[in-house]
Amino acid sequence: MRKKTLTAMALLAVVPFLATACGTAGPTAAPSTSDSTVSSAPAEGSGRVAPGTPAEPTPTTTTPQPQPAPPPPPMTVPGTPCDIADGACVRLSTKESWLISDGRVSYGPVPITSGRPGHETPVGTFPVLWKVRDDWSRPYNAPMPFSTYFVSNGIAFHEGSLTDPSHGCVHLSREAASKYFEALQVGAEVQVTA
Questions:
Q1: Structural domain of residue 102, as residue ranges?
Q2: Which of 94, 95, 87, 72 is nearest to 172 (CA)?
Q3: Are both 96 and 184 inside the same structural domain?
Q4: What is the CATH number of the domain that holds 101?
Q5: What's the whole-number mean pLDDT along residues 161-188?
Q6: The pLDDT of residue 148 is above 70
Q7: Residues 21, 68: Cα–Cα separation, whole Å
Q8: Lowest mean pLDDT among 7-11, 120-124, 149-153
Q9: Which DSSP helix (H) or strand (E) runs through 191?
């Protein structure tokens, strides 16, 4: 008889643990140390839940946490379509470009030509990669004075025709190409818009 009582007590100690671990409330009455057997059905009208019986879910409401405001949109440099603080801005649709310093136009707009169909000038923001004062295009057998490269496949600002489209580069007048070459350092931003 003592062995049955100890087994019943052990069962009463384990059932609430398992019930709690499984997300249910467990029994509401304290375990008894008498020799009685464990009943799995609640006493009628007692309002108690038998061990192992899932508790009724309690509806909960949660208030969503306030989200931080999105960052403000970048401010465009007045008179340009670009939002960089320093570097060069290009608008392909109007064939013009500017140098920007401290968030303001420091030079321009100047006229440009850009890539012809099949050789379009890429749109995006790029860093100046390298510069060559008197470069030569081997594929097109043409001079490229004041080359300021900003795309790794050879796209650069340089002196070139302002009437004929390029093979992707941004052509500038001699004066503008020289100014861009001097003003833009390696790492400076170049923003090209459509």
A1: 87-193
A2: 95
A3: yes
A4: 2.40.440.10
A5: 98
A6: yes
A7: 36
A8: 7-11
A9: strand 189-193
Query: Where is pLDDT greater, at 61 or 15?
Result: 61
Catalytic site residue 22? Answer: no
Please say whether the dihedral angle defined by the alpha carbons of residues 21, 27, 32 and 38, taken in this order, is positive or negative.
negative
Q: Is residue 60 part of a domain?
A: no
Q: Is the pLDDT of residue 156 over 80?
A: yes
Number of domains observed in the structure of the chain? 2
91 and 35 belong to one structural domain: no
Residue 13 within any structural domain of the chain: yes
Q: Which two tokens stand for residue 138?
A: 């081997």
pLDDT at 75: 82
Which are the contacts of 186, defined by CB distance < 8 A and separation ≥ 6? 127, 128, 129, 130, 131
Q: In this structure, is residue 53 part of a structural domain?
A: no
Residue 5 and residue 96 in one domain? no
Q: Could you tell me if 91 and 186 lie in one domain?
A: yes
Task: Report the C-alpha gap between 50 and 39 in whole angstroms.
Answer: 8
- Does any domain span residue 29? yes
169 is catalytic: yes
Among candidate residues 22, 158, 167, 171, the one labeled active-site is: 158
Show Cβ contacts of residue 118 under 8 Å, excluding neighbours closer than 6 positions.
none
Given 82, 89, 169, 171, the catalytic residue: 169
Residue 129 reports pLDDT greater than 60: yes
